[in-house]
Design brief:
Pfam families: Trp_halogenase (PF04820). By secondary structure, this protein is of the alpha+beta class. About 30% of the residues lie in helices and about 30% in strands. Strands 1, 2, 8, 9, 10, 11, 17 and 18 form an eight-stranded mixed β-sheet that branches. The structure holds flavin-adenine dinucleotide. Flavin-adenine dinucleotide binds near residues 125, 159 and 275.
Amino acid sequence: MVLQTFDVLILGGGPAGTCAALRLLSLGYRVALVERESFPRPQIGESLSPGIRNIFEYLHASHLLTRHNYLQQLPAKVIWETSTAQTISPQQRGPGIMVDRGLLDKDLLELAVDRGLHLFQPASLHGHGIMKDGKWWAHIRMDKAFHVLMATFLLDARGRDGTDHAHRITTAPPTLALWAYTPAQQMPNETLIEARDDGWTWGSPMPDQRFRIISFMNPVKIRPGAIADVFGQTLDKTQLFRSVIQNWQPRDIAACVVSNYVHAVPWDERYIRLGEAAFSLDPLSSSGVEKAMRFSLQAVIAVNTILQSGDEQLARWLYERKLIDAVVTHTRWTADYYARAWTNDHPFWKERATPFISDKNIHTNFHQTLYSSFTQTPVQKATSRKHGSYEEEDICRLWDEPVQLSPALTYQDWPCIVDDIVQIKKGIFHPNLEEGIAYLADVEISPLLINIPGNATLGGIIDEWSKITTYKGAASMALFLWEKDILIQRQC
Ligand SMILES: Cc1cc2nc3c(=O)[nH]c(=O)nc-3n(C[C@H](O)[C@H](O)[C@H](O)COP(=O)(O)OP(=O)(O)OC[C@H]3O[C@@H](n4cnc5c(N)ncnc54)[C@H](O)[C@@H]3O)c2cc1C
């Protein structure tokens, strides 16, 4: 057996594992990946949210989204907040995409191999990896042969298989999903979503001329042979799917219980969890793939920070903070969305309409920090303006305004990401900011604020800042600070 050494060994070749591999390869690392299944393998989760596009662009993989007749920008018919159907145009929905996950995951993995990934597939870890002298050692079995791999990091991207139940912190009640396919020509060429009193049903055309229908409900015991009846009853309760069940005998109905959780120990001695091995989202969001990939990019920054600067504590702090932010935000968003359904006085909806993160058996620091963040009241933002947008007429109106810094502004050390490495910079803090900010428009902000003169006007500040960034960047920074009451009117 020959020993092969890598910087990073990844377990699992779904979107989370492959996204991490692609990014690590582009940063110049030696990466190996072990995938248990031969690809393409069947995989649910084909409806990709619009945000997926900029991740593929960032990975130089956008061309993979235009293959295999993937369906771009479908309209949707939705029965949710009222009992009547609303049509949502592709423009209102944003540029989502319906893919074949088996093929997309295969294409992504092949792209990573083209870019230098050492792939072991189909292969599995023999026993557990072992940490010895600061390195992970793993025995991989492939084609009846063993390979010994050594790596500085082990990234666990095994999806739901990567979390045992004992380590799951529950973030919502479990939901039963039943799904089947009908020929696409029987159905409209649009995504359908409908709230029922005992759950909800989603359907969409697929790239392969089939139409997938999934019904979600509270888990029930289904006696053998009765699954088609239970599935049919859910469709019969709807307006949008009822007609299809009258002429269709669904067969090959698949079922799974979807649990929502976050892992209680997502980071453990250079063993880092990604994607659904770290956390899962309610399928309501249709953004599991996007969030899994986005989070992998954060994990890569943590790995890169440690390999470049050795600051493990800082890297881990940012990784865990990003994970907590993602889980808390999603949990609140999902509960709010369930609460808005017109059927919300039924038990299925009531159970899901209040955000929930389990406080049972808190025995890890991560769980404790997650729970404290969840129970904190979110900051009320002073304005809805996003940094980066401004109106020229606002600038003209405020140009001669005498300004000064708010007395509530403070400066503290704040971790931020510069060139794919977590670094400590001086951040600005203010009651109207959700968290510290170190950079605005790619410019470090605290040195600029510290140097604002006592006789400043808003226009004078924009002129000054235009010397180090564009006029547009300077104007949007100044207006953002004005609208957050960080720059305030000065009494002359
Ligand atoms: C019912 C349902 C509907 C969903 N619908 C959507 C949707 O419409 N849109 C959306 O964006 N998301 C959806 N999701 C979520 C989405 O599927 C996941 O977020 C996404 O697949 C997570 O990617 P991942 O890479 O973490 O895991 P996976 O995609 O599960 O990949 C994990 C990989 O690890 C491999 N593996 C497992 N064990 C081992 C091992 N021991 N050794 C080596 N390899 C191993 C597996 O074979 C697999 O290839 C849905 C989920 C469910 C349950």
